[in-house]
Structure formats: C-alpha cells, structure tokens
C-alpha cells in the first residue's frame, strides 16, 4: 500500500466551485442508496465532477478522493456549526451570542443538505420550539420580508405591564395568523 501524499489546502474559490458542481450533480453524488449499481453510478458521477472541476479550476489538479474528502469536511463542519448554534440558542445567561453567522459557502452547504441538516421533527421533543423557529426563519429567507410595527406586552411583574414597540417581519407572524 502506498502512503498518500498531502496536497495543498483548498482555497475558498475552489470550495465555491466544488459546491456549485455538487449542486449540479446533487442527484447522483448525494444519493442515499447503497446497492452496487448506485455506487458505480456515484463513482462515475464523481469522476465526471472531478474532470469538470479540474477544467474550471486552474490552481491544482484534484482527484475524486480529494474532492470527496473536501465535500465531507464541508458537510461535517456545517453540521457541527449548526449544532453549536442550536446549543447556544438554548443556553441561559443573556448577553451577546457567541456563535458567528454562517458564511456564504456554509449557507450554500446548508441549502444543499436541506432537511438532513435539521433532522426529523418530533412533537414530543423539547427541541420542538427550535424546529418551529428554524422553519419560520427558513420561510423568512424564502419570502420577501415586510416589516410591521407591533406592540408587545411583557408581564414581568404581576399587575404591571411593560409596553415594547418592535418591528417584526410580517412573514414571521405566519404561525400566529394560521392558528
């Protein structure tokens, strides 16, 4: 067995090209089936993707194993960051959130992963509220946002109400309107 030699790191433009090609060949590359015919079809798809990647990218010549590893690492880091963001949302203590907003490459990977990134909805799980907020935030991204002034009453002390005027996206009110 020959030892693999380490190649140069992928730069952001190479990752962007890879993500665009994954989007183009998503049905072949991200197929969940594991039978012999599908695996052969996936390997052929990765070869075509590698040829197209090398024709578009003038930096380094990459083989299919390097591209697969890069794609797996992108998926892994996206899932890890999404889990850290979810954990950060449920922490108490106030203050500024520690998580950074996702970059443009990570947002594209999130779109490609789709529902496999968020997991299955479970009405009996305590994360149900988080799933609803994720669904609402995804809907806000898809829809054109209209901002409405809204009055919110906060009952911090019994008998006293604090009035707060906020600007809320109209599309984030859809769960309240449909109920």
Automatic annotation (TrEMBL):
Q: Specify the superkingdom.
A: Eukaryota
Give start and end of each Myb/SANT-like DNA-binding domain: 6-82
The subunit structure is:
Self-associates forming complexes of several hundred monomers.
- Give the function comment from the record: Involved in transvection phenomena (= synapsis-dependent gene expression), where the synaptic pairing of chromosomes carrying genes with which zeste interacts influences the expression of these genes. Zeste binds to DNA and stimulates transcription from a nearby promoter.
Keyword list, A-Z? Transcription, Transcription regulation
Q: List, alphabetically, the Pfam families matched.
A: Myb_DNA-bind_5
Origin species, per record, is Parnassius apollo (Apollo butterfly)
InterPro entries (alphabetical): Myb_DNA-bind_5
Q: Does the keyword Ribosomal protein apply?
A: no
Q: Can you name this protein?
A: Regulatory protein zeste
PANTHER family per record = APONTIC, REGULATORY PROTEIN ZESTE
